[in-house]
Amino acid sequence: MRQEMILEVGGVTKTAGRRTLVKELSFGVRPGEVCGFVGPNGAGKTTLIRMITGLIKPDSGQIRIDGVDVRQDRIAALSRVGAIVESPIFFPYMSGRGNLLNLARLHGNLHTSAQRKARVEEVLAIVDLSGRGSDKVKTYSLGMKQRLGIAQALLGSPKLIILDEPANGLDPMGIRDLRNLILKLRDEQGISFFISSHLLDELQRICSRFVIIKEGGMVWQGTSGEWVDIAGTRGLEEHFVELMTR
Amino acid sequence: MRALFISELERLWKRKLIWMMFAAIPLIVYATARYYAVHNLQVPLDSPEFVTSGNFPVMALIEQLIVVFNLVSLVLLTLSFTEEYRTGQLRMVLLRAFTVGQLFRAKAAAYLVTISLFFAAYLGVSVAVGFQMFDSSETTRLFHHVSPAGPGEVMGYTLKYYGISLLTVVGMGSAMLALAVICHTTTAAIGFGVGILLLSIGYPLVYLTFNTVLNLQLPAQLAFLSLTQIQYEGIAYLLADSSMGPGPYFPLFALAVVAGYVLLCAGGACLAFTRRDRWI
After folding, report:
1. CB A156 within 8 Å of CB A137
2. So which residues are the signal peptide here (chain B) (predicted)?
3. Other CB atoms closer than 10 Å to residue B233's CB: what's the count?
């Protein structure tokens, strides 16, 4: 029997004017899996993430989250997802806690003020921001904003979290904290992750599956172990460059 | 949908600028009262322009409606639609389990509530300042009314004037909303919004001047295609005694103009907001 996918992308194509940004992409992410989404700048990673999260519509193809088609039932599909698309941008005139409380209103599973406050404190603790929750977001470092971004993605207790270049601009300690947080959420809460990044070594540490694209099209997909075997002694970076220049 | 509306309202009211606009109301009303105190020395006692505590709320609104209220409306719409959308802040909301149409309606409702509160606050402060700074009178002369009005009639007139003014500001706001949705920066949205306001003020002057100078004999009523012209003269005509108004069809015409702005501009803005891809 075919295993149910948490994310299914089937033959998705997106054009803008004469340019094809994403062409015929198909892959799946299984529950509890951390999937790395790799490609050079301008390959169409963020475009696909925008389509998965319903910000833009594909010209053709289908995207299903936990079995629900994003175009046919956006509300049901997005209720299962938390995401950071590009950099996490918050309402700068509000505190971190204020941002989360405002966004928590938009989750159907948090009906009362007490439920919302409790969930906000819970996610602030998960990302280790309880102590700075009352500070205005405009005073946060990039690393803190990334963590707050994950906190807002966690609000609705999602089955899938999508992170677009989450390590951008983070220092080594920030990257380590982020990695530990992702692994903790996967192990303790069974959350699946779909992460786009350029940091191959970092992705290798946390991802069990990879999807590699170039100019909007699929170049390679498979498990982390398969990629390591194929790359051999060259290492992932060299193999990735080879794939991109082929 | 209710949660979305409260979330929008909460964010709008977390901004200092909104509080500053409301805090400015007493200053604006006081400055207007000072102006009318001097103006009263130049107009006869039986003129509708002579300000008493009874008609001050309406006179204070007339003085500030076109500029202050339309600009407040423009700022609200620009903050809520243009800034949140173009800076990417709205992405956090768009990623939640709502339709974009629901988000548009929630934003529009938050705007309507806030601009209505601005009118209500302005009315409240005007009543207080009016009683503080002007004499009361048994009767008050109203624009285009044959006989003087008693306190009850003046109160009804005031409420109607504020209600119709709110409708015209919302009509004008619809045009500004279309710009707020289309423009790529808040500066452009504010700039084009002020431009459309100036265009609206200038159109009747140009139209009536050309109509007279070139003897075109076009209906003067067409000057009221401009919402600011309705705000400037039209509301008083709408509330005039039937014998002193511009004609029996004027209310229908004015209603059609306001409705036209709302349907065309707000409808277009809604389509633009909900149908296009959101590259944010």
Report:
1. no
2. none
3. 17
Q: Delineate the domains of chain A, giving CATH numbers in brackets.
A: 1-18+55-78 (no CATH), 84-172+181-190 (3.40.50.300)
- Distance of CA A200 to CAs A227, A237, B15, Å? 11, 7, 41
Of residues B93, B99, B280, nearest to A106 (C-beta): B93
Q: Mean pLDDT, to the nearest integer, of A158-165?
A: 94
Order of strands, sheet of A60-65, starting from the edge strand that comes earlier in the sequence: A19-29, A7-16, A60-65, A68-69
B279 interaction partners in chain A (CB closer than 8 Å): 50, 55-56
Can you name the residues that pair with A223 across neighbouring β-strands?
A: A209
In chain B, where the domains are located: 2-275
Please list, in sequence order, all residues whose beta carbon lies within 8 angstroms of the beta carbon of residue A133, skipping any fewer than 6 positions away.
A95, A96, A97, A100, A120, A121, A124
**Cβ <8 Å between A103 and B11:** no
Q: Locate tokens 């891809």: which residue?
A: B277
Asked if residue A86 lies in contact with residue A164, where contact means CB atoms within 8 angstroms, the answer is: yes
Question: What pLDDT is recorded for position A1?
Answer: 44
ipTM of the complex: 0.87
pLDDT digits (tens, 9 = 90+) for A188-241: 999 999 999 988 988 999 999 999 999 999 999 999 999 999 988 888 889 999
Of A83, A89, A156, the CB nearest to B88: A89
pLDDT tens per residue across span B28-84: 999 999 999 999 999 998 899 999 999 999 999 999 999 999 999 999 999 999 999
